[in-house]
Design a protein that fits this description.
Layout lengths: L1 H17 L3 H7 L1 E7 L5 H14 L8 E7 L4 H13 L4 E4 L8 H9 L3 E5 L9 E4 L2 H15 L5 E6 L5 H17 L2 E7 L4 H11 L10 E4 L3 H10 L10 E3 L3 H7 L20 E4 L5 H13 L7 E3 L4 E3 L5 E2 L4 H5 L4 E2 L23 H6 L5
Parallel strand pairs: 1-2, 1-3, 3-4, 4-5, 5-11, 6-7, 6-8, 8-9, 9-10, 13-14
Antiparallel strand pairs: 10-12
């Protein structure tokens, strides 16, 4: 009797497969891995949320089986994990590479076995890999030029950089330094900020042990303008005295950019409109979600450019606009900062909108839930 039931079940599964039922759908899912490197900051956590939301969206949930691994800041560990992903039957690997070159050989080997490899935000230089990034050099150059103009072409500044060794940090920092050198701006302090508000606070505290805020004219920070403004307020400086800061697209920083007195529900302390002089840019956290979407397109035979360059989100005091509810339609209409009542973490990154990724919005970035 058991054998009869087993045969019947096998026949049913075979029929379901032939008709495109659940068994066929499971077989049709692409085996995709997410390889993350450094995760110790708000941006990486948010980007991972958006990737997971994209995998769970109506567009991809029946097409993708996503598995996530974290290598930390070790290129060797990331290489080992990518090798293991290939051996586990990966169809595609979406990767945040800790280095633009260290992964080249393992990526080349993966491509040779038919695996699609696509990097987001940071780049891989191996020709078989796909890349989805902003122009990181442009980000460094534009923000540095803004700061030079704010300072009237002279002054002493502090630079806080990102995660060393990544293509992102190298391109931004080199481009900014070139602008400052040509303008004659004095860089009187530098620190490695690891794209973390907490690390930025710690490093700024060290720099301020040898000079005070009055001896600094401006700040160029890959992440940390929100924190720098908070520290100045804590030190007794007024909102009108906040130093001009060229930096990241954190929601806290953008709320601070709003004119003093702007009503922003949930505002308190430093996380409130200050009229702070700012240029705010970002590597959009949706880049990984878009990379996953493109990876599936490639697996399904679509022609995709080897390098997809995303628009650089730039927000100034003239263009910052508060979102009332944070809907995708509202973002499409141009809002670019979120009420603190919607986003409690000021370090959370606000540049989450792309017309290419309607599957992911505010809830995707906050908790990994796709749009309906």
């Amino acid at each position: 009797m058991k054998r009869v039931h087993a045969l019947a079940l096998a026949a049913a599964l075979s029929a379901a497969s032939a008709l495109g039922g659940p068994a066929a759908q499971a077989q049709d899912k692409h085996n995709v891995f997410l390889s993350m490197s450094y995760i110790g900051n708000d941006w990486q956590a948010e980007a991972a949320n958006m990737i997971k939301a994209m995998a769970g969206s109506q567009t991809l949930r029946d097409k993708v089986d996503l598995k996530v691994q974290v290598a930390g800041p070790s290129a060797q560990r990331q290489i080992q994990q990518i090798n293991a992903m290939v051996q586990a039957g990966a169809d595609a690997i979406v990767v945040y590479p800790i280095s633009p070159t260290a992964l080249n050989q393992v990526v080349k080997n993966a491509c040779a076995k038919g695996v699609t490899v696509i990097a987001y935000d940071a780049e891989i230089t191996e020709p078989c890999a796909y890349n989805v990034t902003i122009d990181q050099s442009e980000a460094g150059r534009v923000t540095a030029e803004w700061l030079v103009e704010e300072l009237g072409g002279k002054g002493d500044i502090v630079m806080v950089t990102g995660v060393p060794g990544t293509s992102v940090d190298t391109a931004r920092t080199n481009a900014a330094r070139k602008v400052f050198d040509e303008a004659g701006i004095n860089v009187v302090g530098t620190a490695v900020g690891m794209w973390s508000q907490a690390v930025a606070r710690n490093e700024l505290s060290k720099l301020l042990a040898t000079r005070n805020w009055d001896e600094i004219d401006g700040l160029w920070m890959q992440v940390g303008c929100y924190t720098a403004n908070a520290m100045q307020l804590e030190a007794g400086r007024t909102a009108e005295d906040l130093l001009p800061c060229a930096g990241e697209g954190s929601n806290g920083g953008r709320i601070q950019m709003l004119p003093t007195g702007t009503e922003a529900e949930g505002s308190s302390g430093a996380y409130a409109p200050q009229g702070a002089r700012r240029i705010s840019y970002a590597s959009p956290p949706y880049s990984g979600a878009y990379a996953l979407k493109l990876a599936v397109d490639i697996l399904e035979g679509a022609e995709v450019e080897k390098h997809t360059t995303l628009p650089l989100p730039i927000v100034t005091n003239d263009t910052v606009k508060l979102c009332e509810e944070g809907t995708w339609e509202e973002m499409k209409a141009g809002c670019n900062a979120f009420k603190p009542s919607l986003v409690q973490n000021p370090g959370w990154f606000a540049s989450i909108f792309s017309e290419e990724t309607p599957e992911v919005g505010l809830q995707a970035a906050l908790v990994g839930e796709p749009e309906n």
